[in-house]
Amino acid sequence: MTIKKDNSVLQIKPKDVNFIITFDIRSYDKQYNNQNIILVIDFNLTDILDDWMIALKNKSFIFVPTLKEAIDYIGLERINKDLGL
């Protein structure tokens, strides 16, 4: 697993799907409470992200094909929150 922290964005790149299945997102979220999480996946993924969606209920969880799109989306969400939208 590769982790890269930059400002309020935390990039996680797991080696395989087993990481996602066994990873406890709730404990990780406590450690990085104010971080938006970008999960970089370069392998086939099924619907095992349901637990992540539940754990991150009030945070951004973005599933896009590129890292740039994820960062752009987070930026747009911040602007919308600042504008009260």
**Which strands sit side by side, in order, in the main sheet?**
1-2-3
Tally of helical segments: 4
Task: Give the tally of structural domains.
Answer: 1
Query: Which descriptor suits the 3D outline?
Result: globular
Overall pLDDT score: 77
Q: Tell me the structural class.
A: alpha+beta
Query: Can you count the beta strands?
Result: 3
Q: Radius of gyration from the CA trace?
A: 13 Å
SSE sequence, one letter per element: EEHHEHH
Distance between the termini: 35 Å
Oligomer: single chain
> How many strands, which pairing sense, and closed or not: the largest β-sheet?
3 strands, mixed
Stretches with pLDDT under 50, minimum 5 residues: none
Q: Into which percentage range does the β-strand content fall?
A: 15-25%
What fraction, in percent, of the residue positions are helical?
Answer: 40-55%
